[in-house]
Give the backbone structure.
Amino acid sequence: MTSAETGGVTGTQDKDYNLVWYVESCLSNALRLESYIKDAEREKDTEVAELFRKAQADSRKGAELGKELLRARLNHR
C-alpha cells in the first residue's frame, strides 16, 4: 500500500514541490562538482576535470530551466 502526498501535508502540490526539489538538487550538484573539479585539477587529471566541468554546466542549465518554470508559475498565481 502506498500513500501519495498531494499537498495535504506540505501545503504544496507534488508537481510544484518536485520542481523546487529539482532546482535545489541541480544547484547542490553544481556546488559538489566544484570540489570534484578541484580534486581532479590537483591531481592534474584534465580528462576527469573536463568531465566534471561538463556535468557542472549541465546541472547549472537544469537549475536555470527549473527556475524559469518556477518563476513563470509563481507569477501566474
Remarks:
- The mean pLDDT is 89.
- The chain has two helices and no strands.
- Residues 3 and 9 are 12 Å apart (CA to CA).
